[in-house]
Specification:
about 425 residues; alpha/beta; 2 domains; 7-stranded mixed beta sheet; 16 helices
Length: about 425
């Protein structure tokens, strides 16, 4: 057996081919399409409450945000935004002027997931199921990393007569070696829509696979995120600056900067009140409040040691680091550049003359900018310039990792349906 399936009971060998799994999923297409969208929302809302209480899931990284995201109000807002203000389009044809319009599932959604965040698969799976697609999901690693536990709790969720265990009949979560081109081709050719999360190499390989002519592709590729603190905030109310730094530190510590939305470089405008070193010390105080990291692999530890040494030995740079090992690191400089991400609570603070200086650095590669601005007019002016350069999100510190719609400039559920017209 070369295909392994992840189920509520764990991971086990499933088949030598994807064909039996695909056939089983396709048998559920009509049943899933007939489930009222209100029932699906209610089921996921029940799931949201369970994952915070269940000992199998409540300690998973990112579980608290996942639970909030799955809440009924949030899912309804998500559907409104994605479906022209009317989620009922998912249940059948709705009047639109003199005609009718419906949002029908694409069919089978094939998903290749990245392995950086344990709860990430749910942010792909739930939108696909809300759009009433059957789902074939490939995990990046043989370790389910909690996905089996999430599926187990989802299986026990219930809304009226709809049970989570029934819904999971429309889902196959699998793993196979990514080098297996035959299985990757089978998966691609089975898809009516492909969703791909991952690095540049993975994106290129999966996008090059053969697919059916009608099959669309939604790509969430590698991104880089930054922060920006303007002169007004640095010279203004100390409490507001402290709150902004605390928010950035939360964004840095959640997921250990593995998420593409976590800041790696934070730019500070030169100001008359606080030096670069003084701002670095504010970050250091906030980092010191965090609990120690549970552990570090030797490669990451070596990377952190190397960057600390380089910054300490350079007379144009500075570094503030935890004394209890590689727990956190604040690197200080004035080089106008996006620093190579080290992750693991390693942040680069770069002093600049004015926020306009960083606009040439921005591109679609930059996903999120955490903005700590003193005046909303300046924030709007920056956001306009950043959006033109390709940035997808400008948000306040503390919510940079909050998965939302649109994400990477895409309304995912909208891409997961086919809009069908009826004119009589």
């Amino acid at each position: 057996m070369v295909v392994f399936r992840i189920t509520p009971e764990g991971m086990h060998p499933a088949a030598d081919s994807l064909e039996p799994l695909v056939e089983g999923l396709n048998l559920n297409r009509e049943w899933l399409a007939k489930i009222p969208i209100d029932n699906l929302v209610a089921l996921f809302a029940d799931f949201a409450g369970k994952i915070l209480r269940d000992p199998r899931t409540k300690s998973l990284e990112g579980c608290m945000f996942l639970s909030a995201w799955l809440g009924e109000n949030n899912l309804r807002q998500l559907l409104q935004l994605n479906l022209n203000g009317n989620p009922a389009y998912l249940d059948g044809f709705q009047p639109l002027g003199r005609n009718y319009l419906a949002a029908k599932p694409q069919g089978l959604a094939a998903m290749w997931m990245a392995g950086n965040v344990a709860t990430l698969p749910m942010f792909s799976l739930v939108p696909a199921l809300l759009a009433k697609n059957v789902c074939l999901m490939k995990l990046a690693d043989p370790d389910p990393a909690g996905m089996d536990k999430l599926l187990a709790v989802l299986a026990e969720a219930q809304a009226g007569e709809l049970r989570g265990a029934e819904l999971l009949e429309a889902v196959a979560v699998i793993w196979f070696d990514y080098h297996n081109r035959a299985l990757n081709e089978q998966m691609s050719l089975a898809a009516d829509v492909k969703i791909v999360w991952g690095g540049a190499e993975a994106i290129r390989a999966i996008s090059a696979l053969p697919r059916r002519e009608h099959c669309g592709e939604i790509v969430f590729g590698p991104k880089y995120s930054i922060g920006l603190i303007d002169r007004e905030r640095l010279e203004g109310d100390p409490a507001k600056l402290e709150d902004a730094v605390a928010g950035f530190v939360r964004d840095i510590s959640v997921f250990d900067q593995r998420a593409c939305s976590a800041p790696q470089t934070i730019f500070l405008e030169r100001n008359a009140k606080r030096s670069l070193r003084e701002v670095g010390e504010i970050f250091a105080r906030q980092f010191a409040k965090l609990p120690p990291k549970p552990g570090l692999d030797s490669y990451t530890t070596m990377q952190i040691a190397n960057v600390r040494a380089r910054w300490a030995m350079d007379e144009n740079r500075d570094v503030i680091a935890s004394t209890d090992g590689a727990n956190w690191t604040v690197c200080l400089d004035r080089e106008l550049a996006l620093k190579e991400a080290v992750q693991s609570r390693t942040i680069f603070l770069t002093e600049i003359e004015a926020w306009r200086d960083i606009i040439p650095l921005l591109s679609p590669k930059v996903q999120t900018v955490g903005l700590a601005f003193g005046r909303s007019e300046d924030a709007l002016e920056f956001a306009e310039a950043a959006a033109r350069a390709g940035v997808a999100r400008c948000v306040r510190p503390g919510i940079m990792n909050n998965y939302e719609s649109p994400w990477d400039g895409k309304l995912l559920i909208n891409h997961l349906v086919r809009w069908v017209t009826l004119k009589l």
